[in-house]
Every structure is written in C-alpha cells, then in structure tokens.
Amino acid sequence: MQKILACRNPREASLMSASVSVFLLFPRYLMIMGFTVLAVVFFSDDFRQMGNAIDFETILPRAINQFSYAGLTGLLLASLLAAFISTFASTVNAAPAYLINDVYLRYINPSASGKTQIRATYLISLAVVVLSTVIGFFLQDINSILQWIVSALYGGYIAANVLKWHWWRFNGHGFFWGMVSGILAAMVTPLLFPDTLPLYYFPVMLVISLTGCIIGTYSTPPVDEETLIEFYLRVRPWGFWGPVADKAMQRYPGLMPNKHFKRDMVNIAVGIAWQCALTLLPMYIVLQHHLSLLSTVLVLGITTLILKKNWYDKMNKEVIEYDRFMASIGKNIGQPVLEKSVA
C-alpha cells in the first residue's frame, strides 16, 4: 500500500505492482521448493516418527544447515535477515508518520515544533520496536500468526481500503472506525472460538469492518468538495462516484470518466492466473515435472499476451490522452497518487 501511494500516478502504481510479481515470485519459490524437496526426501523418516508433533518451522533452518555450504549458508542467512529488516523497518517508519500526523498534530499538539515532532517520532519508533518484541515472545509459532493475519486481520482491513477508492462519501472517520472495528474483532474472535480455523473468521471480520466503515462515514461530514473533485480528476476511479464525477465534468468539460470496469475485472482475473503461473513455474522446474512445466509456460505466455494487449497497451494509450488533457487545463501530472480519505 505504501509503495502504491508513493507512485506518481496510477500508471506507475500499476507497473510497480506488476513488476514486483515478476521479480519476487520466481526466485522466491525456486529457493523454497528446492529446500522443500530436500526436506521431504531426507527428513521423511523423522516426520513419520514425530507424527502430529512436527514443527514445520524447523525444516528450513535444518535443510540449510545440512545441505548448504558454509559460504552459501551465510549468504542465505544474510538475505533472510535483510528481508526481515526491510519489512520491519517499513513498519517502524510508517507508525510514527501515522501517529504524529493523524493523532498527535491533529488532536494533542497541533502547534508542535519540528524538534518536538522529531522527539515524538523517536519515542513512537522505540515504543513500536519494544511492543513488537514483547508480542513476539508470546507467539506460539510463525504459522499461527500468519494464519491469523491472512484470514482474520485481512477481513478487517479490506473493506476500508476498498471503499476509500470506490465510494465518494467515504471519509477518514469511516476509514478509522472500519479499521479499528475490524482489528479489534480480529483480536477478540480467536479468543471466543479457539478451536476454529482462522480462515472461517474472514466473512465475519469483513462484515464487522464494513459496518464500522458505514457508521463512521455517515456519523461525520463528507470530505470537502474541492478535495473530492481533485482526487477524481487525477485518479478517475470507477465505482460510486456519480455526484463527484458530474461536478468534475462540469468544471472540466473534456474530462472522460472511467468506463472500463468490465475490462479491469477481466484483467484482474487474467492477472491472478498469470501470478499463479509465475509461482508454479519454479516449482515444476525443481520437481522436473515436464508436462506440468510445459502447460504452465503455455498459460504464462497466453496470460502475458492478453495482459499486454488488454492492459499494458491500452493503459499507455489512455495515459497519453489523459496527459494531454491535464496539460490543456494546466494541471501538474507529476504528483504522487492522492489519498482521498483524510484522518
């Protein structure tokens, strides 16, 4: 989400998202599948003896220790540590930005000096690191927390982050209460139903978060009209934007609304198949399943061609036309993608 919002325009956000799949999925699963095969072949007797007591999180370090040379082991550990640090660093950097701008400066100390803000940033960063470390001591295993994040927490995260792009009335208060209600529900539900698979929480979390979004939105005034029109002018999202789109087109007669919902949905479906093929390709290379590898390459080629014709080419053509329109009304197109919702 941070990378998408840091892009200058929707086109660059789309290209960034696509390129991440290309550069991330293939090498990741090439390595994972290689170690998985080694572990299954050489540790299978140990698995049978352990039965249900298998600790799957020990497989990767055990395989690295047994099958990797000293230099390569150091490189792998350094890479894994770098991946962890980069992910953790983005969280540590994001938390002070959110809390300082959206909470501290808005509600606690709006006139805070730059030096005060920097000191508060240091304190918040330290608190995030300490709190995260303490929470880590109480986690039973990585798999359980990942299951909770993907199944439960995402259910409370999706509604707010979809509505902020596709519903004009949605505002920062709706985003806040939607996220809070979803996160709290995701924290409480596992305690109420400890024997239930977290995946089953997803619809419940989604409904609770959506309810919080709607209540928070309608209990507060909408975003001001100028911000909405400027957002629609630069992003042109499809969805429930009728009133704002009409006003934007009245102000800018040459503005064309986004009428490509069906095409975008088709591209999303094709893109999912494309990503799955990128994930399966290195797996079949390692397993040497030649027929499956050939069919995956075929699917990858067909989906790549479809995306080239139905997404990339049309996007470039539309961007050129849109840039000309923006230049004709004297607007700067080099600004980052805007957030409509304000805290």
Explain this structure to me?
The structure is a single chain. This protein has 343 residues and is an all-alpha fold. Helices cover 78% and strands 0% of the residues. The protein has a domain at 141-223. The chain is built from 14 helices and no strands. The chain is globular. The chain starts with a helix and ends in a 15-residue tail after the last helix.
The chain-level mean pLDDT equals: 85
Order of secondary-structure elements: HHHHHHHHHHHHHH
First and last CA, distance: 17 Å
Overall radius of gyration: 24 Å
Strand content: under 5%
Tell me how many strands there are.
0
Q: Can you give the helix content as a percent range?
A: over 70%
Category from helices, strands and their pairing: mainly alpha
Q: Biggest β-sheet, characterized?
A: none
Task: Tell me the number of helical segments per DSSP (H or I, 4 or more residues long).
Answer: 14
> Uncertain regions: pLDDT < 50 for 5+ in a row?
none
General form: globular
Q: Which short descriptors sum up this protein?
A:
343 residues; mainly alpha
